[in-house]
Amino acid sequence: MIEHGQLAQIVAKARLAPSVHNTQPARWRLGDWAVEIWCDRSVQLQAADPDGQDALLSCGAATEATRLVMEAEGAGIDVEDISDGAPEGDLAPFARLNMRGAGRSDPLVDMLEQRFTHRGSFGPKRMADWARSDMILISDTATKAWLGRLNDWVSMDALRDDGFRAELLDWMRLDPSHPRVDLDGMSAAALRLSPLAARFAARAFGPWWGPLDRARVTTRLLAEAKHTQSAAAIACFHAAVDQSPIETGARYLRLWLEVTARGMAGWPMAALTSDAGSRAAICDRLGLGEDRQLVQVIRFGQATQDPAPRARRVVDDLIV
Questions:
Q1: pTM above 0.90, yes or no
Q2: From CA 224, how far away is CA 222, in angstroms rounded?
Q3: H-assigned helices in the chain
Q4: Which residue of 88, 134, 184, 301 is surrounded by the most CB atoms within 10 Å?
Q5: Are strands 135-138 and 233-240 parallel, antiparallel or unpaired?
Q6: Could you read off the pLDDT of 205-251 as tens digits, one per residue?
Q7: SS3 state at 210
Q8: What are 52-73's pLDDT values in tens digits?
C-alpha cells in the first residue's frame, strides 16, 4: 500500500526526468499497489509537437524515472500500458506501475539529480567506449559540421513561422521575475543567456523579428553550429517504428543517465527531429531503415559551466 506522502517523495525525484521544452506533461496518480502516469495534454506544444509524440516521449521518460525511484526503495515494478483507457479532460492515461514483490536498485537512479542540459559550447573531454543498439554516435568532424548546418537551417525555417515562434517565446522565461521561472519552461540561465542577451531575445523573438530577419541578422544571432562542433559526440537516438512510447521514453531516459554517469551534459537538437525533411536526410545519411524512426538528436560533451537552477513544478501540482 502506497500512501500520499510516499508518492510525493517518489514524484519529487521522478519529476527530474527530461521533457520537451521543460513542459513536464507527466502527472502521477495513486493506487493501492500501483502508481499511474497520466499525460497532461494542456501543455502539449501545438506548433512544435502537433501529433503529441514529444509529450508521450516525455511521459515515457517520467515513467522510467518513477520505476527507478520505486525500485531504489525496494519495490519490484511491472509497467503496464494503460493508454487505451478513457481520458479525463486534458488528462490521458499512459502507464501503470504495479508493485510486484521485491526489486533491485539500478545505479542509474543516482544520476537523476545530476543530469542537466547545457546549451553552450563544450570542453575538450572526448566520448569513448559508449555504444547502444538504439543509438548512432557521431564524433567525426565532417558529420558533426553537417548536422550543425542542418540544425541551424531547419531551426531558422521553423522560427519564421509566427505560431511556432510565439509558442517558443511563451515557454521561455527570459525575465528573472517571470512567475513561472522556477516551475517550468526554459529560463535565461538554462539557455545560457546573459541578462542583456535575454532582454534582447525577448524582443528579437517578438516585435523585432521582422526587421531583424529581413536584415539577415537572425541567422547570425541564432546559429549554434559552433556549439554543435564543440560536442564530444552527437547521439542520434532511434527506435522501432512500432515501439511503444513507454519503451522509447525509458530508453531515452537511460541514454541521458548513462551519459551523465560519464560526466557529461547534453542539449537536444529538437529541430532536427521536428522537421520531416531533416529526419529523412539524417536517416538516409546514417543508413537507418524504414523500420526505424529517428527520435532525438542530442549533442553531448563536457559542460563548461555549472548547471543552471533546475525549474520543476511543485510536487502537489503533479499529483492528480
A1: yes
A2: 6
A3: 4-14, 53-72, 141-159, 162-170, 195-204, 209-214, 217-222, 225-230, 245-261, 271-274, 276-286, 315-318
A4: 301
A5: antiparallel
A6: 999 999 999 999 999 889 999 999 999 999 999 999 999 999 999 99
A7: helix
A8: 999 999 999 999 999 999 999 9
